[in-house]
Amino acid sequence: MKLINFVIAFLLLSTTLHFSANAQQDSVVLNNIISKTKKLSDEQPIEKVYLHFDKPYYSVADTIWFKAYLTMEQNIPSQLSKIVYVDVINERDSLVETLKLPTTNSVAAGNIPLTPGNYKQGNYFIRAYTVWMLNFSDQYFFKKTIPIGEAIEKQLITHFNYTSTQTDKSQSINAIIQFKNADKVVQANKVVNWRVISNYETVSKGKGTTDQNGILKIKIEPRKNEIITNGELITDLSLTEKEILTSSFPLRPVKSDNDLQFFPEGGELVNGLAVRMSFKSLNAKGLAAPLTGNITDNAGNNLASFSSNALGMGSFYLNSEAGKTYKANVTFKDGSTKSFDLPKANPAGIITQITNTDPVNFNLKILANDPYFEQNKGKTFFIIGTQGGIIYYAAKTRLATQVNSAKIPKEKFPAGIVQVTLIAENGEPLNERLAFNYPTQENLSLKTDLPTYKPRQKVKLSVIPKNATQPLEGTYSVSVTDETKVPVDEDSETTILSSLLLTSDLQGYVEKPNYYFTKPDEKKLADLDLLLLTQGFRRFAMKDLLTGKPASITLLPEQDMRITGTLRDRTGMPVRKGALRLTVPGTSISAEAITSPSGIFAFGNLVIPDSSEVLINAKYSTNGSNLMILLDGSPLPDVGKNISHIGSADNIDSTLSAYLNNSKKQYNFLRTLKEVKIEGAKVKRPSHADHPSLSGLSSINATVIDGDRLKDCNSLALCLQTMAMGLTYFENNFYVTRDYQSGSRVPVQIFINGMALDYMALLGVNPKEVESVEVFTKDDLGTINRMYNTNGVLVVNTKKVVKSTMSLADLKKILPKENMLKFNPKGFSKQREFYMPKYINPANTYNFNDLRTTIYWNPKVNFNGSTPLVLDYWNADGRGTYKAVIEGVDKFGNLSRFVYRYSVK
Questions:
Q1: What is the pLDDT of residue 619?
Q2: What is the mean pLDDT of residues 614-628?
Q3: For 301-332, how does the pLDDT look when each residue is reduced to its tens digit (9 = 90+)?
């Protein structure tokens, strides 16, 4: 495996100064840089995950089909981890479900059934990662927002927008909602009650009536000093006295000012040098705010005019003079105007500039102004070219003139972001510049046996290697969709190229990431250069690498599914050479383990399906009837941390209109089935109200975690650290988040079935036996807070046990055995096959409408040769354009994506 591949090269300056290879190799600074980068890449290689979805959005009752690609440096298939995790998080930043997938040859296929009831209309945040990636920032995770619409239970179609104005202490939100019924008839003159929830409290409420166009205007004014940053507007529209339709809308207001930032090429503005000044303009939602403007100095002289591209980015050159300051006076596309101060220039400095128009080389310039040149004339400098923290190019020279140039061959670098750093002779990084190295060629293409087909006609789709003489060895996935029903903005798509080569190495949200890879030309290359000049680099900063400490490694890569823990006796002492047996009741799965001298045990190479009950038995050990089995917790990333809602679909009803209209017909049978209702006596579920000491708590203030959401938890205590909304966990205590962030350290009181206990008691609760968990961030009467000197309440309600006459022997049978442990670990997610009808017999009419939107999905397209691979499938009833997409990676890390279209008439 190739983890480091660098080239020590001559930097040929315009003064034609040369230095011997020995002189370069003898450089202590250069050797130090090389050794540190190699050590980091060897000890802390970076993994990336990419998910290829069958389509960009879905409806409730659909199934999300995807394939996970796990790579490391140079995008070669990763050999570090063998397990990938996929989280689904809703708009309330709550975890809906987690998938655990084993990888084979660094890939895994998965699916997420969007079951009605579990999923509702909204934007869902998908993230994918490995345990090894938890050692580093969660910004390394794969992330994508997927809109999911509702067609089955749709009774109201809404269109919602809002504007806000705010200061540091006050806020005013003006919202406009239009209501239509399922047949798109406006709901005029309907009474609507509304309320706004923020920090789990109702902060504003009111009542109104829709006008003749079904429009309701709402003015929201929260209480003083309680600014809404992440809230929810809930409306109740009254069709009749008894029929009320509820809708909810996310509120994430921000200050409405547009923002403009400036980024001098090479990192700083220097007097006396013509520096390229790049800029990026964003609106309040974090999206592009196109503009035009001009530059003036402190004397009012107009120096230059400029404008941004459609993505709010642009650049201009500025030769600053000592004693002068500069302003940018801009007019945004929305008509607003504003002036911004440009960064102050340094009196002495050196910068790097790169021109990336040559397909063969990066053209580098090093410029020093007069004072800097006089102070550093003849000193040694280094140029380091890296990608992903690995050095691919290194050169050394002396500062002989104020303008020096060099050509850095692109062939030395893999495809992706290249980082060029200028380093002083003392090893201090001076400035950095990013440039993009486009992939050289596509590895494969798609082609059908016919250009045009009929509905339900068989298609032969060929996967064709581009190089017929060189065998292609790689793994790929193919998706075919009906583009008439699934229209998509190709520029906004997340693809294997945009993810692994670009956005995974950039900080922040990248708008329209696939724009730079869809038929790239000179303009798109220039726009991509602007993105790298303004977006900021995250993974490896040379200064941090040379002067800082590497991330601490606490988690090792998962090579298999394993269950670990400690065996102790009743005194708490570890049991050495203890024999344990693991079984999954109802299956042939079993394993055995012997504890270490420290009592530690490990069951490795397990293949346990999700939702399985596992039994560990220690009765074979000495004193087996007097032992305790303690399991290690599973590492979990924080839920709701660093989740960006930029780019979420604001109005799913209208945005996905064509798709949802088709889904309404496709899933009409589900609505018919749902109309059959069986009424029965309702069983009262356990709650805090069952206990007199807790009866004063108000259900209005409660956030309830249903027991079904805890079925996959190994430890209730660990799961509640991320699932208890409104609470923050720290050092074996929960705290109300809003108060904790204000400096309060008064803990939450925990109750289990009405009994006041502490955090450690949660460790003994079996998550499978939990009926619900209620979180109260407020105790309105204050009875509990005063009695226990706490703030907030967490109530755990376990499932009721039916009372009956029971013998002591029967009671012992249901009690947990001291030498046994039953639990439900997070198992591997169940695999399903993509269903596709086969219209083999033309005489068979198949008396149903084939309304599929995903026509074909195959995550197991494995190539090992040079001859075309033929894939067979049948079209649906839809007429129009069908879009076929193949993505994947070969064993050398070459990424591929190819799009092909054909017609169905």
A1: 73
A2: 78
A3: 999 999 999 999 999 999 999 999 999 999 99
Residue 20: predicted pLDDT: 36
- Cβ neighbors of 487 (< 8 A, separation 6 or more) are 658
Sheet holding 452-453, edge to edge: 452-453, 895-904, 880-890, 472-482, 854-865
| Whole-number Å distance between alpha carbons of 19 and 17 | 7
Write out the H or E segment, with its range, that includes residue 565: strand 561-569
Q: Is the dihedral of CA 453, 457, 463, 469 positive or negative?
A: negative
CA distances from 442 to 502, 863, 889, 893 (A): 17, 15, 11, 12
**Residue 570: pLDDT above 90?**
no
Superfamily name and number for 687-799 = TonB-dependent receptor, plug domain (2.170.130.10)
Count of C-beta atoms within a 10 Å radius of residue 903:
12
Kindly state the average pLDDT of the residues 358-379.
Answer: 94
Closest-CA residue to 206 (of 225, 233, 231, 179): 233
Residue linked to tokens 């190709």: 490
Cross-strand pairs, 432? 421
**Looking at the DSSP assignment, which residues form a beta bridge with residue 363?**
355, 407
The domain spans of the chain are 269-341, 561-634, 687-799
871: which strand partners?
461
Task: Please tell me what DSSP assigns to residue 490.
Answer: G
**Contact yes or no for 625/845 (Cβ under 8 A):** no
Could you identify the residue written with the tokens 């993230």?
A: 127
Q: In this predicted structure, what is the pLDDT of residue 420?
A: 93
Among residues 542, 391, 381, 430, the alpha carbon closest in space to that of 19 is found at: 381
Give domain 269-341's CATH number out of 2.60.40.1930, 2.115.10.20, 1.25.40.10, 3.90.226.10: 2.60.40.1930
Across 91-95, 816-820, 897-901, the highest mean pLDDT is recorded for 897-901
pLDDT class for 9, splitting at 50, 70, 90?
very low
Distance CA 417, CA 386 (A): 9
Sheet holding 380-387, edge to edge: 390-398, 380-387, 416-424, 429-437
- Mean of the per-residue pLDDT values for the chain? 86
| Collapsed DSSP state (helix, strand, coil) of residue 790 | coil
Q: What is the separation, in whole angstroms, between the first and last Cα of the chain?
A: 49
Are the beta carbons of 371 and 441 closer than 8 angstroms? Answer: no
12 backbone dihedrals φ, ψ, rounded to 5°: -85, 110
What local confidence, expressed as pLDDT, does residue 805 receive? 54
Angle value at C-alpha 891, between 889 and 894, nearest 5 degrees? 45
* Closest C-alpha among 134, 137, 58, 69 to residue 105: 69
Read off the DSSP letter of residue 346: B
Among the ranges given (85-94, 308-317, 624-633), the one the predictor scored with the smallest mean pLDDT: 624-633
Note the pLDDT of residue 5.
37
Question: Which amino acid, one-letter code, is at 695?
Answer: S
Of residues 165 and 653, more confidence is placed in 653
User: Tokens 């927002």 label which residue?
Assistant: 145
- Alpha-helical runs (H) found in 748-891: 783-788, 808-814
What mean pLDDT do residues 234-248 have? Answer: 89
What pLDDT is stored for residue 12 in this prediction? 33
